[in-house]
Design goal:
The chain has 204 residues and is α/β, with parallel strands linked by helices. Helices cover 50% and strands 14% of the residues. The protein contains nine helices and five strands. Strand 1, helix 4 and strand 2 form a beta-alpha-beta unit.
Length: 204
Amino acid sequence: MLTAAEALRRLADGNRRFVAGESLNPGAAACPADTAAGQRPFAVILGCSDSRVPAEIVFDQGLGDLFVIRIAGNIVAPSQIGSVEFAVTSYGTPLVMVLGHSGCGAVLATVDQLQGPAEARSRNLATIVNFVRPSVRAARAACPDADHDALVARAVRENIRRSVEHLRHGSDIIEDLVSGGQLEIVGAEYSLETGEVELLGDKE
């Protein structure tokens, strides 16, 4: 099994191929029967549902390589935590990446809601905004003079970092694996403009 560092390097190498237009596209030649008996994903990707950020493509990986969890705003709710717990305990996956992206619609909607009159939303959409709201407020507090676009950009990164922290401390199972050195959780941002994935630190 790969280590977390090796898994991260494999993701970075795949993203470089994607950006350079040199994808190996391993999924195209893969045979579903080869993975029917089981899977051994080397990384868990908790990403946004945005149709422009399919993890297998932007990291140039194939069938069975990634355990992908997608939800608008790459938020961390109980079902996402449970999915991560399942992957890391069932398959020994050493790396979890929270993958956000520039111009995230969930973050944009939350910024607009806080800056203007609240629009009528379904209660289900409101739950996503409620998860993102603390990140927007923290971004605005850190940079109160930021214009709209700068606030969105800062809030996107804050939202990624908060999701990372929520995963690290929202589950005894995950927390024990992290503290025991068996699991690493990182945050990263995908650029819609360039296709590049940038690894984020815990702080600006």
